[in-house]
Amino acid sequence: MTAETTLIRVAVAVPLDEGFDYLWTGAGEPPAAGCRVRVPFGRSERVGIVLEHPATTALPRAKLRACEDALDTAPAIATELLDLLRFAADYYHHPIGEVVRHALPGLLRAGEALTAPREQGWRLTPLGRAQMHAPRAPRGVRQAAVLRELASESALGARELARRGAPPALLRRLAVRGWVEPCELAESPRVPSTQPRPTELKLTPDQAAALAAIEAVGDGFAAFLLHGVTGSGKTEVFLRLIAKLLDRDRQTLLLVPEIGLTPQLVGRLRERFGDALVVLHSALTPRERTAAWQKARAGEAMLVVGTRSAVFAPLPRAGLVIVDEEHDTSYKQQDGFRYSARDLAVVRARRLGIRVVLASATPSLESLQNAQSGRYRLLTLPQRIGAAGPPSFRIIDLTKHATRQGLSTPLLASIDEHLEHGNQVLLFLNRRGFAPALFCPNCQTAEECDRCDARMTVHARTGTLLCHHCGRERPLRWACPNCGTERIGVGAGTERVTDTLRSLYPDRRIERLDRDVTARRGALATVLENVARGDTQILVGTQMLTKGHDFPRVTLVGVLNADQGLFGTDFRSLERLAQTIVQVAGRAGRRDQPGEVVIQTSFPEHPLLRSLLVEDYTAYASLALEERRRAGWPPFSHLAVWRAEATQRPRIFEFLEKLRHYAASRRAAVEILGPAPAAMERSRGRYRAQVLFQSRERNALHALVAATLEALRGWREARRVRWSIDIDPAEI
């Protein structure tokens, strides 16, 4: 094939496995792998990424379409990152085009210029300079001031001039007179940050040992699991590592579960590293996200902090990857491209030949097993910083104590005691709203969602009934539509608990922290500031309270209902509950005052609760790992879940039964379970079911998944349902 008709294989964001072959007919050499091109696709055009220059193609030459429009002269996606994306597409069995799109901001996927345009500025013209020395100088005070400002500089940016009192309209008037002219500002070279860093805290012996162990490895791949109890100073270890990499002109990628819920961490990083930091997360505007990505790609951002998708950030000077709160389920994408950012962070660090640190007070059982097997090196911070030490635990048996909207008499007594000493109280209930059900005592019925197998939650403040699964909303009517009897809200959510506390403590400031509150812009920051200043005495919240917040004056933490996760259908239910309890308990007694944790339950003798009460998370994790080993669940086996949904229930079981029969006929070393309905079979008006593949041999599992994928694409049944494949699922 001639140079004029070189083949290029392009990844286009469509749900098809392979790239698409085109004939390069543009001017010059074909674009390199990782460059963006605009290609004809169907009846329109798409922006795609060049994957490779194949020597041959399976298509007849007459069917190949031409591509002549390259958007980049240098790759938008570096070779190492493109290789990672191809690995991820293979491992998670997901179309390469949809995988590659995760590596670029939306504006770049739409074809915007790869590099940020230089800032527009203004400079003095020779006529303007002469005007300053003319016998009749400009009469306008502001005009004369602008000319003086520009005379002392070669050029100034429009934003800087506006800050100095020269609005765009004034500059345009001066341009009409010929005294100033627009220009592009020269790109300033990147220089290491010279801003003074805050005084570093003195490290504890455990912190110093952990830091020394990580630094001792030097260059090259190494994986560490930093298991530090809450309040042990894991963040300070991160800061020291980042600072040392910054001194060596190397970049650090720091992944966090949810940036919006950890403003204290981001603030601390900005204070320490200033302009060296950029943040990548979904709450940014498209322009902000693109600008941050461009700084990372140019090597100007030496610290990239982001949520799940930031694992695909460009890192030309990569030196270190940190995954904070590595156990958090938000690192696993739950729809579309179902990847684990934590796992890909380790893979990327290995491919880059750099160190990776996974950190948590409650490490996942998978990471603990990797540490036991020698894949990761375990580092521990077993002691809290400060004189308080670990909090004390107390279990309240709800079968023996009266409650008022979820608040037992002993818990209220503890709240009184801690408030009298001038301390703060944090109450955890992972159920928002006023009440989880609206019940008619006469009809014996509860109001159900008509799209989901779920009850509508009462939100009394807004006067609505809301389904927390599909978002269906109805007006709240207390009268039963069937018999007219006044209905009652059964159970308690954060809204109801807060109202009850306000009636019990009218002189105290009580706030709540949940998705309903933080939906209002700026509400999260306001709530956290009020707690930090001590203005709020009692804070009621959901799982958002576990996200690494530091509340120095909180000495009492109450877990209002520990039973929600004790009997879940997922084999990870107890692990998740243990992590939640330990994380929220870690908010108590963070400084010099001892903390107390009160856990309300109707099952006080449950082994999980007894283990946490008598020992700690490490003891629980050891028992849980042994149970997993005996049962053959991960991390001692590997899983893939096939999910299907449709508006008609028989269709999903017809599809999944055929899938099960096909997979069983392959006689692989894989156990096939199901099909079975999902835990909530109907959601958003669609029925859902699944089939589980389980194997102790990872290669056997993936081979069977690949073979099944190849077969089912020709099935009529597959076209009548929505189906997906989830490798290493976080939930089943």
Protein traits:
732 residues, alpha/beta, 7-stranded parallel sheet, 31% helix, globular
Task: Describe what you observe in this structure.
The protein is of the alpha/beta class and 732 residues long. Helix content is 31%, strand content 23%. Helix 1 (79-91) packs across helix 12 (341-352) and helix 18 (573-585) packs antiparallel against helix 20. The model has no long low-confidence stretch (mean pLDDT 87).
Largest sheet: 7 strands, parallel
* Cα-atom radius of gyration: 30 Å
Strand content: 15-25%
Query: How many distinct beta strands?
Result: 34
- In terms of per-residue confidence, which ranges show pLDDT below 50 for 5 or more consecutive residues? none
Shape annotation: globular
Estimate the mean pLDDT confidence. 87
For the biggest β-sheet, the strand order reads: 12-13-11-14-15-10-16
Span of the ends, CA to CA: 50 Å
How would you summarize what this structure contains?
The chain is α/β, with parallel strands linked by helices. 31% of the residues lie in helices and 23% in strands. The longest helix has 17 residues, at 649-665.
Secondary structure layout:
Blueprint: E1 6-11, E2 20-24, E3 36-41, E4 44-52, E5 65-67, E6 69-70, H1 79-91, H2 96-100, H3 106-109, E7 120-124, H4 126-132, H5 141-151, E8 156-157, H6 158-163, H7 168-176, E9 180-184, H8 205-216, E10 222-228, H9 234-247, E11 251-255, H10 263-273, E12 277-280, H11 286-297, E13 303-306, E14 318-324, H12 341-352, E15 355-360, H13 365-372, E16 377-381, E17 392-397, E18 403-404, E19 407-408, H14 409-420, E20 424-428, E21 437-440, E22 445-446, E23 457-459, E24 464-466, E25 473-475, E26 488-490, H15 494-504, E27 510-513, H16 515-518, H17 523-533, E28 538-541, E29 554-559, H18 573-585, E30 596-601, H19 607-614, H20 617-631, E31 638-646, H21 649-665, E32 671-683, E33 686-695, H22 698-712, E34 722-727
Parallel strand pairs: 2-5, 10-15, 10-16, 11-13, 11-14, 12-13, 14-15, 17-30, 20-28, 20-29, 27-28, 29-30
Antiparallel strand pairs: 1-2, 1-4, 3-4, 3-6, 7-8, 7-9, 18-19, 21-22, 21-26, 23-24, 24-25, 31-33, 31-34, 32-33
Helix pairs in contact: 1-12, 8-9, 18-20
